[in-house]
From TrEMBL:
Gene3D superfamilies: Lactate dehydrogenase/glycoside hydrolase, family 4, C-terminal, NAD(P)-binding Rossmann-like Domain. SUPFAM superfamilies: LDH C-terminal domain-like, NAD(P)-binding Rossmann-fold domains. Keywords: NAD, Oxidoreductase, Plasmid. One of its GO terms (biological process) is lactate metabolic process. Pfam families: Ldh_1_C (PF02866), Ldh_1_N (PF00056). NAD(+) binds at residues 12-17, 101, 122-124. Belongs to the LDH/MDH superfamily. LDH family. This is Lactate dehydrogenase. The keyword Protease does not apply. The active site is at residue 177.
Length: 307
């Protein structure tokens, strides 16, 4: 495997941003980790905490507090910002942050206009925020973390239900990171063989798992951080492999499997049966419509928030 890259930026010092940053420090994936938050004081506090971690673990990653404009030289930037808002939705929960987070994402994308490195968006609703960041910034390599975490949960859940290791399961969850997620059951194999998928049980677990985690510890954070690290290895060309990521596909933005070779992606959608195809079409229509609501100009007072 190639050695660590020069620098990676993390924008957001909230629960998810902190966990992503700590994961990157422990991984040794880069020499410098540039931390950006709503204020330079918040960024400095997180960088100091991470520096303690670097010292105690012997990590080669040096954390630094920076501003968004300093990220243009990074190999990759991870966007984990979140506006201050209360999500009162009982269903389609991730969509509850669309209106609040859109101005924050738009402001950051404007600050990074023309950035040529890789951008990984974690902020929800991730499919909409990824498209908003890409179209506002003009950055050529913008991906959303979401469907790869859903796919990892799918393989883990199916492995538990069928009493096999998760590594024996090959299958994808695509479309939306949310209620419109499409479980590609018809193309799933277990130990290389087509399997009967307990779809109702799988969907129930995928639907309720994030809520249980959030109810217990306040927010899902370790899973997204792991997805970020895995994806960075592929997008930075450190290893080859497949990740399910939000990206532009045939004029729309949704989660699909991308096969990375030396950091370059190729779409590799699985075959879908009629039901899965119809579900994916409905998800695309939903995401397309929801995105139109985000195209209003952002308030001039927009600031980054990371709580």
């Amino acid at each position: 495997m190639p050695g660590p890259v020069g620098s990676v930026g993390v924008v957001g010092a909230g629960a998810v941003g902190q966990t992503v940053a700590a994961t990157l420090v422990s991984s040794g994936i880069c020499h410098r980790l540039l931390v950006v938050s709503r204020t330079i004081e918040q960024a400095a506090a997180l960088a100091a905490d991470l520096d303690d971690m670097r010292q105690t673990t012997g990590s080669p990653v040096h954390p630094e507090a920076r501003r968004a404009a300093d990220l243009t030289g990074c190999h990759a930037v991870v966007v984990a910002v979140r506006a201050t808002f209360t999500n009162t939705r009982a269903d389609d929960v991730r969509m509850g942050g669309a209106a609040a987070n859109a101005p924050v994402i738009r402001a950051l994308a404007t600050a990074l206009c023309g950035y040529q490195g890789t951008v990984l968006v974690v902020t929800n609703p991730v499919d909409l925020m990824t498209r908003l960041f890409a179209e506002t910034s003009g950055c050529p390599r913008v991906y959303g973390i979401g469907s790869n975490l859903d796919s990892a949960r799918y393989r883990l859940t199916l492995g538990q239900l069928l009493d096999v290791p998760a590594t024996a399961v090959h299958g994808h969850v695509i479309g939306e990171h949310g209620d419109g997620a499409v479980v590609c059951a018809s193309s799933t194999t277990v130990n290389g063989t087509p399997a009967v998928i307990p779809l109702a049980e799988v969907r129930a677990e995928l639907r309720t798992r994030p809520g249980r985690i959030s109810a217990g510890v306040g927010r899902t954070r370790s899973g997204p951080a792991g997805a970020v690290l895995s994806t960075l290895h592929k997008t930075l060309g450190l290893v080859d492999g497949t990740e399910e990521l939000t990206c532009e596909h045939r004029g729309d933005w949704l989660g699909i499997p991308l096969r990375f070779t030396a950091g370059q992606p190729v779409a590799c959608l699985p075959a879908l049966d009629a039901g899965e195809d119809a579900q994916l079409a409905a998800t695309v229509t939903k995401l397309r419509g929801a995105y139109q609501a985000l195209r209003r100009p952002a308030p001039s007072s927009t600031r980054l928030e990371t709580t």
